[in-house]
Structure formats: C-alpha cells, structure tokens
Amino acid sequence: MNKGLIFDIRRFTVHDGPGIRTTVFFKGCPLSCWWCHNPESHSCYPEESLKSLNLDGKKFSLKEMIGKWMSVEEVMSELRMDRIFYTESSGGVTFSGGEPLMQSEFLLELLKECKANNLHTTLDTSGYTDRGIIENIQPYADLFLYDLKLIDDTDHIRYTGVSNKPILENLIYLISEEKQVIIRIPVIPDITNTKKNIKAIIKFLSHLVNERKSASSIKISLLPYHSIAKNKYSRFHIDNKTMHLKDLTKESLIPLKNEFEAEGFTVRIGS
Ligand code: SF4
C-alpha cells in the first residue's frame, strides 16, 4: 500500500483555506527558502530531534521523531473525524508541507479519497513541480494556495535554492484552467519586498489578466514576515539567514496592499 511521510496533522486550523480545516503537513521540500517557517519539513526522511522543555524552572530535553509513514486510510481516518466542523463552517482539508507535490502519488490518492468523501480540498504549494504532476492533481484540488516569491530567476535561486521557471509556468497553467487560486506573497524585507520585485510581480500578474479575466479575479494574500520559527532552526541544525530581520506588522503592509489594489487585484493581508 502507498504510504506518505507526514510530519504533522493539525486540526481546527483557520488560516489554510476557507472555514475550519484539518491541515496535513507533508515532509520534504525541494526548496530551502531563507524565511521558511517549517524548516523541519525540508528533509524527505524522518528525523530525530531534541525538544527543550521547561518544567517548574528545570530544563529537560525530549527526543522527538519528526515524520511518520502513514497510509491513505490512516490519514483519512483522521480527516473524517472533524467532518461535522467542515460542514458547519464550509471548511475542509488542506495539504501543506513541505511540498505535498513531492509525494504526488500519495497526494493524488488522498485527494481522490477526499473527493469521494465530499470534502473540500486545498493544496498549499510552492508550485515547483513537473507540468504532468500539476495536470494530474488539479482536477481534485478545489483551491490552490500558491506561493509567489521572486520574479528574477537569479534572486529566486539565491533565496530558495531553485529556479522559478516551473513555478511561474504552472501558475499560468492553473489560471488558464480557471482553477481557484490564491496567490500568497511572503513579504520579506529586502528580499521579496523590494521595489524591483514588487514591480515585476505586478507586471507578471497583469499578464495573467485577459479579456475573459478581470484583475479583480486575481486574489492575493500578503504574508508579513515573522520570526516565529527561529528556535526550530537551531533544533534542525539549519542556518537561519533571516535572523536579523524584524517582524512585520499587518499595518505596515497597508501601502503594499494599496499598490496591488491600485492595479485592480483583490488583496488581503495575512493568510
Ligand atoms: S516552499 Fe514552503 S516549505 Fe518549502 S522551503 Fe519554502 S517556505 Fe519552506
């Protein structure tokens, strides 16, 4: 039986798509974004990690295994538990990571099972995959949360480790297929939030608008940088290259929101 490597299943999530959801986190990602909030997702293998606990002023270390091989039925039995909440809130299930498309066969089986169970499905993705994989997956995903980071390919390679070519091409494909897509732009000071990059993103998105599609049909979420994951970097022995950056407030992104809205796009701050 096909198994997938999952590092978390979070219930009652409200930031990963509409309504109340259960989010399944896939382990493994082909990117290594400098600002990643889930560095524990990067490796495609289960990893042992030491978690620090503070109990009554005493510090303890606890060994924790990150990543568990699960069958489709094991995941589905978790997902079915909260069906009532999905129904009441128009919510559903979100597949996130890491990059779920790295385990595309397992993901496809799960998506098909969700649709057979009438569950709304959202895929949170970097979009970094082969076109054939996106083509196979897209009929079973009701909504894509699609990251758009950097338009200049050299910058993209520098800050994420990979080229953005398949990412941009797959986004164009999904929009042309009339899929529901929310484009998520992580706003990282001096990296993604530069005049040059914002101008290039606006230009790229404007090209997605044609006679059939209005600019307002392009939905954007601006995600303010925060350093919530900084402690995880040392736990997983990953260099934290954005350590020096200060967290951004939602209010500080209002001028940027206005800039995108002036082009006609539908924009919100936060996920
Ligand atoms: S694509 Fe997402 S999970 Fe992967 S490294 Fe970037 S931010 Fe982290």
Question: Could you name the key traits of this structure?
Answer:
single chain; TIM Barrel; 9-stranded mixed beta sheet; two-stranded antiparallel sheet; globular; binds iron/sulfur cluster
Description of the molecule:
The chain has helices spanning 72-80, 83-89, 104-116, 131-137, 153-160, 165-176, 195-208, 230-235, 254-261; strands at 3-13, 21-26, 47-55, 58-66, 68-71, 92-96, 120-125, 143-147, 181-187, 219-224, 266-269. The mean pLDDT is 94. The chain is α/β, with parallel strands linked by helices and 271 residues long. It has one domain (3-269): TIM Barrel (Alpha-Beta Barrel). It contains nine helices and eleven strands. The two termini are 35 Å apart. Strand 3 and strand 4 (58-66) form a beta hairpin.
Lay out the secondary structure:
Blueprint: E1 3-13, E2 21-26, E3 47-55, E4 58-66, E5 68-71, H1 72-80, H2 83-89, E6 92-96, H3 104-116, E7 120-125, H4 131-137, E8 143-147, H5 153-160, H6 165-176, E9 181-187, H7 195-208, E10 219-224, H8 230-235, H9 254-261, E11 266-269
Parallel strand pairs: 2-6, 6-7, 7-8, 8-9, 9-10, 10-11
Antiparallel strand pairs: 1-2, 1-5, 3-4
Bound molecules: iron/sulfur cluster (SF4).
